[in-house]
Design a protein that fits this description.
single chain; mainly beta; four-stranded antiparallel beta sheet; 1% helix; five-stranded antiparallel beta sheet
Length: 340
């Protein structure tokens, strides 16, 4: 593992200060298309690769490949997405995986992790869509306090489908394993970050087109407007839909213009790092930093920008309050320690 002190490398305007940041440690390297981080109670970490690999990484950086995964298709933006150990993992050994199936949409399976293999793999959700494009799959998972899962799905490049009640395109769904699934919200373009805050409120961020990446408070039954309203423009420069606001559609709490291509979302608890309490941490695939947002996501108050933060694909708060992230470009997993 490599250790680098951050103070000279950070770009942190406004209320975030370099002296409030610990050191950055490279936990593992040599990853190909890393996508998601999941923490195990014994201190090990699970990391997915888009090509369909799942790794267990020890504290010493040693990697072991997990076998028995459900089949996913690494094509376009599709592949293996999120890994989420269940809240009761220490008892159940259960994890959840989201992924793109060949010729179909975003799916979720659950399984038990036994050593270096998955057993009892069971598909618990399959996207209902007739879209076949290779983009905007969503794929982020979050687990509520009651054990329900939430999954993001993008419009699959079929804009109008995000308003079609017969399809899952552009939705966030609630999955109650063994009991059923329901659409929770509609009108999303491509949500790539999903997390609960300490009060149990669900939040998401999503990619805009040319400008208009959004942070949204996710409330049951709400419609977030894509593609009828949006900030930014189409890549051609043409206007999107009917403008930026319309009755019946929700407004974002924050939007970026120009876009940062957000990916991964953590809402910090403040554990061992009181200055970070409530802050939203958002990775960027485009401008190579981690955006630091005020509590509630309504303002960007800083950014963590180092040579390690190249195409940040996922950001998580670790068990001891550190900030963990995946750099897709560097093929590595990093941890930023809380300041001492």
């Amino acid at each position: 593992m490599k250790h680098i002190f951050l103070a000279a490398l950070l770009s942190l305007p406004l209320s975030v200060h370099a002296q409030d940041i610990g050191k950055i440690t490279e936990i593992a390297s040599g990853l190909k298309g890393p996508w998601s981080i999941g923490f195990l109670p014994d201190g090990e970490v699970l990391v997915t690769e888009k090509r369909g690999k799942l790794w267990r990484i020890g504290a010493d950086g040693k990697r072991d490949e997990i076998s028995g995964l459900p089949a996913s298709e690494d094509k376009g933006q599709g592949g293996l997405f999120d890994v989420l150990p269940a809240r009761d993992f220490a008892i159940s050994g259960r994890i959840y995986l989201s992924y793109a199936k060949a010729g179909e949409g975003t799916s979720v399976s659950m399984a038990q992790l036994e050593g270096d293999r998955l057993v009892g793999v069971t598909e618990i959700f399959e996207m209902q869509t007739d879209s076949t494009g290779g983009r905007h799959f969503g794929g982020r998972l979050a687990e509520a306090a009651d054990g329900a899962l939430f999954l993001t799905m993008g419009d699959r490049g079929d804009r109008a489908a995000a308003q079609d009640p017969a399809r899952h395109n552009g939705t966030i769904v609630r999955i109650d394993p063994g009991r059923g699934t329901a659409v929770f919200t509609k009108g999303h373009r491509n949500p790539q970050g999903l997390a609960f805050d300490l009060g149990g409120q669900l939040w998401a961020h999503e990619h805009g087109a040319r400008g208009g990446d959004e942070i949204n408070r996710i409330d049951k039954g709400k419609n977030y407007g894509w593609p009828i309203i949006a900030y930014g423009t189409h890549y051609s420069g043409a206007k999107i839909g009917e403008g930026t606001a319309k009755d019946g559609f929700e407004q974002p709490v924050f939007y970026w213009d120009p876009s940062i291509a957000p990916s991964g979302l953590a809402i910090h608890s403040g554990k061992n790092w009181p200055a970070m309490a409530g802050r939203f941490l958002v990775g960027s695939l485009k401008v190579d930093h981690i955006a630091v947002m005020a509590a509630g996501g309504s303002e960007q108050v800083g950014k963590i920008e180092t040579r390690e933060t190249r195409r940040v694909r996922d950001v998580r708060e670790g068990p001891l309050g550190g900030i963990w992230f995946l750099s897709e470009e560097r093929g590595a997993l990093y941890r930023i320690a809380p300041p001492k």
